Amino acid sequence: MAATLNNHIQDYIAHLAIERNLSPRTLESYARDLRQFGHWAEMLHLGAAAIERRHIRDYLGRRRETGLSPRSAARALSSIRGFFRFLVATEAVAADPTADLRSPSLWQTVPHTLGGAEIEALLAAPDTSTTLGLRDRAMFETLYATGLRVSELVGLTTDRVRLDPGFVRVVGKGRKERLVPIGLAAIEWIERYNEGGRALLDRDRRPELFLNHRGGKLTRQGFWKILRRHARQAGIKTHLSPHVLRHSFATHLVENGADLRAVQMMLGHSSLTTTEIYTHVARERLRNLYDEKHPRA
């Protein structure tokens, strides 16, 4: 009688305990991940030899949808990968369906990014006939044009904004400085804010470019509240944070062919590895589009 998937899982856990001498806690972690996977495969009436790469992707994707973190999903894949390597080594299956399967930690490491229509709706949400609306439009345009962190945005001082050559000088993590170009649309709205809004707020000659309604320094929490309010007005249903705009900035650049090292410099990443996630995001969006639209996908 052929061994069931659960029999194979028990054999693998015994192998880990005896041959690899893993700790009880580690063994329980492997066993828990594989029991959950085995239960799912059993419901689909899949034996070990019938499981394909698409099944594992579907399983981990569904787990992510139910709230499993990227780190936990990556650990689950690691358990499943080790299990199938064991099955191949013991000739229980002919091929490893986890071969070249990318870690789920990359599937949604980057928060949701906004599409072009959502960006336009958000930028248009503030009432620019008011002082605060003018400020908010200028802030949103600046954030999307530069990909600044929210702490960098609220800490941006007027002497670090050079509208004529079109760049901002940013003090980022570790007090490191970088130059970030800024586009014409953002320049226009900053100029309008400077001319028609900031002077009314700046009662104490503050150095910061963007001020709160009392004329003081805008906090990160204050910006979050402003962003959430305008997101509701724009009809954006998904969770929106300042980092979503930063990631939208980077993803849209990569999707349109920007050099990855240039994006790295603009974002202030110390390692190119951190920036490379945007190539994965762009590829994943392209893959999802293909799967959704192609009749033979």
Question: Could you characterize the architecture of this molecule?
Answer:
The chain is mainly α and 297 residues long. It folds into 2 domains: 5-106, Orthogonal Bundle (DNA polymerase, domain 1); 116-292, Intergrase catalytic core (hpI Integrase, Chain A), CATH 1.10.443.10. It is 58% helix and 4% strand. A 3-stranded antiparallel sheet has the order 1-2-3. A hairpin with a 5-residue loop joins strand 2 (167-171) and strand 3. It is elongated, with a radius of gyration of 25 Å. The two termini are 37 Å apart.
Which keywords apply here?
297 residues, mainly alpha, DNA polymerase, domain 1, hpI Integrase, Chain A, 2 domains, three-stranded antiparallel sheet, 13 helices, elongated
CATH topology of the largest domain: hpI Integrase, Chain A
User: Mean of residue pLDDT?
Assistant: 86
Q: In CATH's first tier, which class of the largest domain applies?
A: Mainly Alpha
How far the N terminus sits from the C terminus, by CA atoms, comes to 37 Å
Share of residues in helices: 55-70%
**Unreliable segments (pLDDT under 50, ≥5 consecutive)?**
none
Number of helical stretches of at least 4 residues: 13
